[in-house]
Amino acid sequence: MATRDWKHEYQLQKKRGEDKDQIERQRARRAYDKKGVERSGKDIDHITPMRKGGKSTPGNTRLRSRSSNRGDNK
User: Model pTM?
Assistant: First the structure.
């Protein structure tokens, strides 16, 4: 499995104008993938929502079913 240059990818994301929240979500996905966690069919839930200043740190994220996560975020 080839590794990706995440620093380079981050610079490209900034150039494309992707917002900070998109980049934070990607950071959370990469953290779960690095641990080898199977997350298909699940959403990464931020315990303290990003809109309220929450970050994509291991202590602030958890995997939840899509219906549960999206039901809470209305």
Answer: 0.62
- 43 DSSP β-pair partners: 64
In-domain check, residue 29: yes
> What is the mean pLDDT of the segment spanning 23-45?
87
Q: How far apart are the first and last CA of the chain?
A: 38
Domain containing 50 equals 18-72
In this structure, is residue 6 part of a structural domain? no
- Could you tell me the CA-to-CA distances from 70 to 18, 26, 30, 36, 46 in Å, in that order? 22, 18, 21, 24, 11
Q: What is the mean pLDDT of residues 42-67?
A: 88
